Amino acid sequence: MKPRILSSCLLASLLLGALASCGGEAETTANDTVPAGNDTPAETEAAEESPYEKDALPELDFGGTAFRVLYRDDLVDSFFRAEQDGDVVDDAVYSANLAVEERLNVDYQLTTLAGSASADRDNYNNAIINSVLSGDDAYDMVTIMTYYTPTIICSGALLDLMSTKYLDFTKPWWVQDLTNLATLNGKLYFASGDISLELMQRTYCMLFNKKVATDLDTENLYDIVKSGKWTIDTAARIAKDTYADLNSNGSIDPEDRYGLVISDYNHAAGFICSTDLELTSRDKDGIQHIDCGSQRAVDIVQRMVGFANDTPGVFYQTQNDAGSTEKHQIYYNMFRENRLLLITAEFDQVRTIYRDMDSEFGVIPYPKFDESQAEYHTLARNTYSSFAIPTTCKDPDMVSAVMEAQASQNYRTTSQTYFETALKVKYSRDDMTSQMFDIIKAGSKFNFGVTFSLVMGGVQTKFNRSMADNNPNWASTYAAIEQSAEETLQKFYSDAAALD
After folding, report:
1. DSSP for 184-203, written as a single string
2. Fold of 204-378+435-497
3. What backbone torsions phi and psi does residue 197 show, to the nearest 5 degrees?
4. pTM of the predicted model, to two decimals?
């Protein structure tokens, strides 16, 4: 049995509204076609001895049937590997896929399309919708950039996962926090968790340059985090003390030394979670409503605007730079070249962008709003993939069994390899970094307003824009959009309720 990835041409176009506020400017780098692997099947005995919980699936044999999956081409390696390449994470993905194929007697067949870059998103989403509208039953499982799940849900293209036979969302390999907030009118149209590495890979964090910290005799950031004193005010004070006009031209530019860079326009969403700012509240019937006009929300936005715009040494990338690879590279290079103390990041950037960095660096969480906040919190950038079954699927029970088996297998093996071996050992520069990864992961949570930002009437976008535009007047900003945002959100609920 040889896993395969199939290339695919674009299907007929059906216009979808793409919003520039969505995160994820990733460029397509992967080939559409990956050759079948001819490696000797990986040893799976260790997986069977894993101390982690196993699923409750019965013995099943699907007779070698094809399991057809649609995935974004630049992210597919986080879910599926056609062959081994010697990398500890890649080989763990490969082995987990093979274990599920052999256990259930299925044959993974991956179709990949460009869908991460802004210009490609409509075509990718249309591939899902048009497949259902045409009734061609092209895919058994589809993956969706989470930001766009409301669009695909309201198209009627997705099956209620709660109606399937084998998915058990009480298990730890499914993120129950996400499952709870994504359940609409008692139905669940997408899920995520250990079924792919993406959710963990997209988790927000901060990195600090240890050489810069040592040269400037900066306070021990690990100790600050462990003491509970890593707050916006503390970050602002340290960033201010770090800034220096290194080229002596009297202007703030990338040749200077910065204290902190919010390196991506969309990384501002990480502060929504880290400051415990909720954008909605749920009523007694489980319906979410726009609700972020409180005094606390006003205080948080005012402080974040001041932090991003009035703190010497803090720089926030503007929306105009959000898709600029060149701009991103400037900030990455500043960090590598010891001209930047702190930079926002995502977990997997430790493994990809900074793995060969000469100077030592550490990992810490985003700062809390203030010391009264009990815990550090983070979330994942909502460009990660969510997993769904199209309504045209002829055997949803088979698909649900494969999804459950793969998520369970990854929970016991691939996720542990990625987090415990790769992030906490292979790519960590010291023992404290390992502890910081644990703190960050333990504080991971989901925010309805971020996950469903596409149908929030621009509320999350206004938070980002307030920081980018130096607009601290959240009370008036929110008042201007509150009614229309609530109407947009409730229409989404109505449209979802009208689905069969």
Report:
1. BTTB---B-BTTSSHHHHTB
2. D-Maltodextrin-Binding Protein; domain 2 (3.40.190)
3. -80, -10
4. 0.89
